[in-house]
């Protein structure tokens, strides 16, 4: 593994970054401190019961 920022390719740098995201629906915790980087030119789908 390379440290964050070690890759000098500008297309590999994240264009979307979520840090420490938590989500609750009422008393139900759906996410707990999620960190997610999405680089340029990548497609990501999040699928769940309501998606």
Automatic annotation (TrEMBL):
<protein>
    <submittedName>
        <fullName>ABC-type phosphate/phosphonate transport system, ATPase component</fullName>
    </submittedName>
</protein>
<dbReference type="InterPro" id="IPR027417">
    <property type="entry name" value="P-loop_NTPase"/>
</dbReference>
């Amino acid at each position: 593994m390379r440290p964050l920022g070690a890759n000098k390719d500008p297309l590999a740098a994240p264009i979307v970054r979520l840090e420490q995201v938590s989500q609750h629906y009422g008393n139900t915790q759906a996410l707990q401190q999620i960190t997610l980087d999405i680089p340029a030119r990548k497609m990501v789908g999040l699928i769940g019961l309501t998606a």
